[in-house]
Amino acid sequence: MCLLLRVLKYSFFYFLFFLAVTFSGHVIAQSLPASVNLTDQQGLPQSFIPSIVQDQRGFIWMATRDGLCRYDGSHFKVFHPQTGLRPSLSNPVILSIQKASNGKLWIFSENFDIDSFDPVTEEFVNFSKLPFFKNSSVNTK
Question: What is the pTM of this model?
Protein backbone atom coordinates (compact mmCIF):
# COMPACT_ATOMS: atom_id res chain seq x y z
CA MET A 1 0.00 0.00 0.00
CA CYS A 2 2.84 2.34 0.89
CA LEU A 3 4.46 1.79 -2.50
CA LEU A 4 1.20 2.59 -4.25
CA LEU A 5 0.90 5.91 -2.38
CA ARG A 6 4.45 6.89 -3.31
CA VAL A 7 3.83 6.09 -6.98
CA LEU A 8 0.62 8.15 -6.95
CA LYS A 9 2.37 11.01 -5.17
CA TYR A 10 5.20 11.16 -7.73
CA SER A 11 2.80 10.72 -10.63
CA PHE A 12 0.74 13.62 -9.36
CA PHE A 13 3.82 15.89 -9.08
CA TYR A 14 5.01 14.92 -12.57
CA PHE A 15 1.53 15.67 -13.90
CA LEU A 16 1.55 19.12 -12.25
CA PHE A 17 5.03 19.81 -13.60
CA PHE A 18 3.89 18.79 -17.09
CA LEU A 19 0.87 21.12 -16.89
CA ALA A 20 2.97 24.03 -15.61
CA VAL A 21 5.54 23.70 -18.38
CA THR A 22 2.93 23.21 -21.07
CA PHE A 23 0.70 26.13 -20.15
CA SER A 24 3.43 28.56 -19.12
CA GLY A 25 5.01 28.23 -22.58
CA HIS A 26 1.63 28.78 -24.17
CA VAL A 27 1.06 31.99 -22.19
CA ILE A 28 4.53 33.33 -22.97
CA ALA A 29 4.19 32.60 -26.68
CA GLN A 30 0.89 34.48 -26.84
CA SER A 31 2.33 37.61 -25.22
CA LEU A 32 5.06 38.17 -27.85
CA PRO A 33 4.22 40.58 -30.67
CA ALA A 34 4.20 39.37 -34.24
CA SER A 35 7.34 40.12 -36.24
CA VAL A 36 7.14 42.81 -38.91
CA ASN A 37 9.39 43.28 -41.93
CA LEU A 38 10.15 46.94 -42.47
CA THR A 39 11.16 48.12 -45.94
CA ASP A 40 11.24 51.28 -48.00
CA GLN A 41 7.56 50.70 -48.76
CA GLN A 42 6.78 51.58 -45.11
CA GLY A 43 9.17 54.54 -45.21
CA LEU A 44 12.50 53.10 -44.13
CA PRO A 45 15.02 55.34 -45.92
CA GLN A 46 17.77 52.75 -46.29
CA SER A 47 18.00 49.01 -45.67
CA PHE A 48 21.45 48.88 -44.03
CA ILE A 49 20.94 49.42 -40.28
CA PRO A 50 24.12 48.99 -38.22
CA SER A 51 22.58 50.08 -34.91
CA ILE A 52 19.15 50.08 -33.25
CA VAL A 53 18.02 51.38 -29.84
CA GLN A 54 14.68 51.91 -28.12
CA ASP A 55 14.14 55.09 -26.12
CA GLN A 56 12.22 55.53 -22.86
CA ARG A 57 9.02 56.44 -24.72
CA GLY A 58 9.09 53.27 -26.82
CA PHE A 59 10.32 54.76 -30.11
CA ILE A 60 12.76 52.66 -32.13
CA TRP A 61 15.79 54.61 -33.41
CA MET A 62 17.82 53.25 -36.31
CA ALA A 63 21.18 54.28 -37.69
CA THR A 64 21.17 54.25 -41.49
CA ARG A 65 23.38 55.48 -44.32
CA ASP A 66 20.71 58.09 -45.00
CA GLY A 67 20.22 59.65 -41.55
CA LEU A 68 18.73 58.98 -38.14
CA CYS A 69 15.41 57.16 -38.38
CA ARG A 70 12.65 57.05 -35.74
CA TYR A 71 9.93 54.41 -35.91
CA ASP A 72 6.80 54.70 -33.76
CA GLY A 73 5.28 51.35 -34.69
CA SER A 74 3.55 52.59 -37.82
CA HIS A 75 5.42 55.60 -39.25
CA PHE A 76 9.00 56.67 -39.85
CA LYS A 77 10.53 60.09 -39.27
CA VAL A 78 13.99 60.64 -40.73
CA PHE A 79 16.46 63.26 -39.52
CA HIS A 80 19.01 64.47 -42.11
CA PRO A 81 21.81 67.04 -42.01
CA GLN A 82 20.38 70.49 -42.76
CA THR A 83 21.83 73.91 -43.25
CA GLY A 84 20.59 76.73 -41.09
CA LEU A 85 20.97 78.31 -37.69
CA ARG A 86 19.71 75.33 -35.73
CA PRO A 87 22.09 72.36 -35.25
CA SER A 88 21.12 69.18 -37.08
CA LEU A 89 22.64 65.81 -37.77
CA SER A 90 26.33 66.25 -38.70
CA ASN A 91 26.57 63.40 -41.19
CA PRO A 92 23.91 61.19 -42.80
CA VAL A 93 26.02 58.01 -42.61
CA ILE A 94 25.56 56.81 -39.03
CA LEU A 95 27.60 53.92 -37.69
CA SER A 96 26.27 53.66 -34.16
CA ILE A 97 23.63 54.98 -31.75
CA GLN A 98 23.95 54.69 -27.98
CA LYS A 99 21.27 55.58 -25.43
CA ALA A 100 22.44 57.58 -22.40
CA SER A 101 20.94 57.23 -18.92
CA ASN A 102 19.36 60.69 -19.29
CA GLY A 103 17.40 59.51 -22.36
CA LYS A 104 19.51 61.33 -24.94
CA LEU A 105 21.00 59.51 -27.90
CA TRP A 106 24.68 59.61 -28.83
CA ILE A 107 25.20 59.38 -32.58
CA PHE A 108 28.53 58.39 -34.15
CA SER A 109 29.04 58.84 -37.89
CA GLU A 110 31.58 57.56 -40.39
CA ASN A 111 33.53 60.86 -40.46
CA PHE A 112 34.17 60.69 -36.70
CA ASP A 113 31.34 63.15 -36.04
CA ILE A 114 29.68 62.87 -32.65
CA ASP A 115 26.21 64.28 -32.05
CA SER A 116 23.91 64.24 -29.05
CA PHE A 117 20.19 64.16 -29.74
CA ASP A 118 17.31 64.80 -27.36
CA PRO A 119 14.35 62.68 -28.58
CA VAL A 120 11.83 64.76 -26.60
CA THR A 121 12.83 68.20 -27.92
CA GLU A 122 14.29 66.83 -31.19
CA GLU A 123 17.38 69.01 -30.74
CA PHE A 124 20.92 68.13 -31.76
CA VAL A 125 24.23 69.16 -30.21
CA ASN A 126 27.14 68.74 -32.62
CA PHE A 127 30.02 67.89 -30.28
CA SER A 128 32.46 67.32 -33.13
CA LYS A 129 31.96 70.95 -34.24
CA LEU A 130 32.64 72.48 -30.81
CA PRO A 131 36.06 74.14 -30.29
CA PHE A 132 37.22 71.76 -27.55
CA PHE A 133 36.62 68.78 -29.84
CA LYS A 134 38.31 70.36 -32.87
CA ASN A 135 41.42 71.15 -30.81
CA SER A 136 41.67 67.79 -29.04
CA SER A 137 44.43 65.34 -29.84
CA VAL A 138 41.93 62.45 -30.17
CA ASN A 139 40.22 64.05 -33.13
CA THR A 140 41.43 62.21 -36.25
CA LYS A 141 40.04 64.54 -38.90
Answer: 0.70
